[in-house]
Amino acid sequence: GEDVEQSLFLSVREGDSSVINCTYTDSSSTYLYWYKQEPGAGLQLLTYIFSNMDMKQDQRLTVLLNKKDKHLSLRIADTQTGDSAIYFCAEMNESQGNLIFGKGTKLSVKP
Amino acid sequence: NAGVTQTPKFQVLKTGQSMTLQCAQDMNHEYMSWYRQDPGMGLRLIHYSVGAGITDQGEVPNGYNVSRSTTEDFPLRLLSAAPSQTSVYFCASSYASGSGEQYFGPGTRLTVT
Predict the structure, then answer these.
(1) What's the pLDDT tens digit per position in B36-74?
(2) How far apart are CA B90 and CA A101, in angstroms?
(3) Which of A98, A100, A106 best probes binding to B when mutated, by most B CB atoms within 10 angstroms?
């Protein structure tokens, strides 16, 4: 079945780059997603990448996709304390039409 | 637009009690879903609906019922609460099934004693 794996924790210093990694299993996923959850709030869509792309850049965010290895990463440049949150990788279950989320990576940014 | 709203924000139940978690959206979205979030488990899909009158089970449906009589509302009912249902519950919506752009509510934190 489908599964999405992420490491649970990442700690960086303010101003450094953060890289959050994810592996997925469903090679038929058309899009792959990154969601952000701030403390005490629901999830918000951060960015997504179409499966036929290798890279997508959006201001401080860079998404890299390696389809061969089913590996997705999210890079946050110049990480700020406001970036502290849980980041979820997700793929679409094409047959049911719903998202399958990883367990989330908690990013802690130290001043 | 208010987006996706959920009530209550917090709830404490005793084992065996029943209750309904409310979810509403004002974006005319067809697809709505309920997730539970537990530490170390991520988000797990409980039930979902692809439109009014249509619901289906997700990964962890046992102990929960849903109905979708209108496009706007998608309540989640706990029939007989158990401590294992202590969790944070999120409702989400998107314009259609298969859309990865989901809008989440703020969550309901439920404790069952």
Answers:
(1) 999 888 899 999 999 999 999 999 999 999 999 999 999
(2) 13
(3) A98
